Amino acid sequence: ASLSPSSCASLIPALGRLSNSNPWFRLEQWQSHAVGALSRPDMINELRAVLADPHAGMGIRSIVIDALEMGAPRPELLPDLAGILARADVSYRERQRALLALLRLGDAGRSAVTDAFRRSLDLSVNGLRLRTEIIQRLYREPFGASDVVAIVNGALEADGSSITGV
User: Fold this and answer.
1) Which pLDDT tens digit goes with each residue over 17-57?
2) Count of CB atoms within 10 A of residue 131's CB?
3) Residue 41, preceding bond cis, omega within 30 degrees?
4) Residue environment code for 57-83, b if the CB has 16+ CB neighbours within 10 A, otherwise e
């Protein structure tokens, strides 16, 4: 939080390089709330660039998503977060953290989550896990008993060997 805008902007590419050279550099630092300080207005372009880069390492993407989930809400990045939530080729953890960041954006975020649930989330194990979490967080508005039954049916038919969390 105390970094100047130029230092903060330089930090993101440096962490990106570290992420590519050492994908596990965050090995036991997954819940560092200090990362939320990166979610600042002068960092929107840098954060968006990481989320849009298909070659960004998992470590830097997770830092950016965690910053948006733990730091100040950034409505400007709603489409980027919704895109992460909808992408089946992104890790479950990143998608789940994007979900949490979206829910912090109020009605617009809830609408994006509902849209992803209805249009984008598949019936893979991770898709079912995300659907389950969404229903838990938004039960009664807009999801209800019929959605729970659909999750149970999907879990029973899942191809995966493990549906932990569903």
Assistant:
1) 888 888 777 766 666 778 888 999 999 999 999 999 988 88
2) 23
3) no
4) bbbbbbbbbbbbbbbebbeebbebbbb
